[in-house]
Amino acid sequence: MSTRLFSRALLLAGLLALPSLAVAQERQVTGVVTKSAGGAPIADALVNISGALRGHIKTTAEGRYTISVPNAAVSLTFRAIGFQRKEIVVPVSQGTVNVALDADIFKLEEVVVTGQATEVSRRNATTSVSYVSGDEVSKVASPNIDNALYGKIAGVNIQSNSGAPGGGGQFQIRGPTTILGAIDPLYIVDGVAYSNARILGGRAFIDDGAYSTEDDAVNRVSDINPADIASIEILKGAAASSIYGSKASNGVVIINTIRGQNGKTRVNVSQRLGTSRMLKGYESRKFTLAEAEATFGSAVDQYAVNGQLPYHNLYDQVYSDHGLSYETVADVSGGNDNTKFFLSGTWKHDEGIETGTGFGRQGVRLNLDQRLSPKVDVKVSTVFNRSLVQRGWDNNCNNYGCAGYAMAYIPGFVNLEPNADGSFPLGAVGPLANPLQTSALAKNATETYRFTGGATLNYQAYSSDRSSLRLIAAGGADYFNQNDNLYAPPDLFWEAHRTLPGVASNQDGTSRQVNWNLNGVHTYRTTNGFQATTSFGAQYEDRQLHTTRITTSNLIPGQSHVDAGTNDFPNENFLHERTVAFYGQEELLLFNDRLTLAGGLRAERSSVNGNTETYYFFPKVSGAYRFPNVLGQGSEVKLRLAYGQTGNQPLFGQKFTVLNTPKFGGQNGFTVSPDGGSPVIRPETKTEYEGGLEGTLWHGRATFDLTGYSYKMTNLLLQRVPAPSSGFNSQAFNGGSFRVQGIEVALGVTPIQKRDLSWVSNLTFTTLRTKMLTLEVPPFEPPLSGYGLGDTYIEVGQPLTRLYGTMYGPDGTSVIQGTIGNTNPDFRLGFVNNVNVKAVNFSMVWDWQQGGSVENLTRFLYDDGKNSADYGSAAWQKRIKNAFQNGVFTDFIEKATFLKLRELSIGVSLPKKWVSALGWGVDNARVTLTGRNLLMFAPYSGLDPEVSAVGAASIRSNIDITPYPPSRSFYFNISVGF
Fold this sequence. Notes:
This protein has 978 residues and is mainly beta. Helices cover 10% and strands 48% of the residues. The protein is built from 13 helices and 51 strands. It has a 22-stranded antiparallel β-barrel. It has a five-stranded mixed beta sheet with strand order 10-15-16-13-14. Mean pLDDT is 91; it is low at 5-24.
């Protein structure tokens, strides 16, 4: 063998030996990861070499792990959802490391969204992101997720429009962001854009409401089952939500549902049974016979018994339904390293406090995680829901067809209850209406079928110890069909007197949203604590909303179909919008993860813009630095600064001038609409600056988060009156600006943290102020601003939420126009407490709103009907003189201050020996008593200061006009696990 040949052979042998040498230089570390409290194993905990991008492994169902590490001292990081991370230095001589993780009480280690396909732990987040766990959402029975979030999030104002079953409320993040534009936050459920389109049923058309929105439409987020939710993230600031572009100015609500975990198959079944009671009703005037005769004449004599008139509490008669409410929830979950699944089903029915009203939901969900290969995995989320809402006939009307409005004019000596033969009496005095008859015979029902499904495909294209590249493709569809069926038979008292008595209405509304995105995420990390995450991608969304309604009057008696009348009114609307966007984002972690810097840009165009080819850009820049042990050992303080822009798309059709089809001589013709569109309409722009200081104390037993923000809305979507020569009465345009500034505080503390006793308290505080900066039109009242007693009025230099109306001048006698209130509260405060004593858990949520104004038109109606409970008093005389003689209505503008006990829960986990005695494989069981809206303390004279008769609006109009009363609910719950 030649020397050259020998050398080559030696080199080849050396190369072949390299892998063996590498293996020889590594060692195995094994152990078990458990919970500090109780010692139970933690499945799917992540174990990796600190600072390395690859090489992490997951623990088994028994909490065991084995990891290969260099043959030297290394630092291992242990992480698991719901637990605080731990880093442990493992010397070269140690091969076994058992780790107990502490519970992450304040969810500081939870990951939050930073982009379309990127996440970061909350402790490194550069913006204010509120996080609520699924346990906090589903602990107490709630008709929808909005109600379950009261008092738990700083910076969010949640308001129910009435107490009617099935929702009908508003979810506003950091105040108003528009005057005439879209008002809802963007909802993302498991990566799928989720529609919260409120489709009005048409009740206001039948009972002569002043606004169509007085229908108090159902929130479509009520289709989401709270029991399926794993977490909710609220992206509040523009820097956090700008990656979603021109639909994110109202904030983004990201909902993640429960997914299967590694381990044996688990079955959980929960059954709730409960009932509801009216929280507060109205008292009406108690008439003497002489007073009644003076008011109504001799017709009242038929009600007298021994010279006395009886008194009936009409609210107690109408809102006295104490039927059984129930909810059954069952789920099956489990999996292994390759396949994980979560399957759940729910059947819910909430009985309303008014006969014929209620809310129900049935649903089936399947979430599946499948590992297709070592580099490819897919996540699939699907859910099908059916909901049925019976809303009743409440809120405002003008023909006494709604219960509360009629009762304002029905004296208390008139009994509404059915006669012996089952017929309903009509009072000899008062309006032509009997609310109990309306509840029994009229129908106002909404039935919805909904499917939401999405899939995410992850491909690990490249991975090493220092860098990795992931490619992500995701898409989904959200589809629902809503059918509204309303029926007012001709024999109803308030229908019988009409020229064409009896009305039936049938409406179909179909919403379809489709979205997909393609993303790339590259991560690079060095040994000195530097990490760069670059993400980029493209997005597409298609949204459609199609509604058709036919209403008919002059019905055949006994018939409720729309083809049984003689006078038809058809209506149809179709909205279609498409959006295309591209984005890029860079996130940097420096100085051992202490400094976080982030920047990004989204370019977007949409079919609703005047110029569909123009791209609008939404940038963001933010940073945060963590100071460890600055307030003592075990403490950490983080300083945050952020800047960002988002938008608010024009409403569909604002760029068009449409044709109308009026009738001329019995024939349809064509005319140009008096409302002109704008070919240059563009999104409203939100520019926001945010700063915050947050941190932890006492080794994570206390947290604080102080955030201040200021944003400016420009390019507002408004209406103006063009030159008469244009032929238009109004025209959409962009112009004007306003500013909103606010402070948010979130505090958490664990005064007691022991094995068998723990106490966790959380407090949230929110305050904000608004100011109109510029306005290119004269001051005006926006739509849904009020009824003339005190209306929202937009004027430069003034708050957007002020109420403008008639008041007395400085001399106390002259009558002038001026500011008589402000619907924005001084502040909102939530207080949440959870106490665990061995197997017993106690929790409660208080919600305090201070200040703000509410317009009590219900009291005005009672005064007008001479039916006020305080009739004849000095306060009543003052109101009558001011309002009916001088036209001053300030007595009906009241404080909206309240303190409410939103939730109360007491639960007990049954002892193991009791559970084992049940057999059937049951290994845990829990019994819980819960209550919602149990107490309310408020100086307000009406039913509830938290109302809005005109429905959802960006600028809150707190108007009370005989809404469905608030109710308190009580539930008994038993849950078992197999």
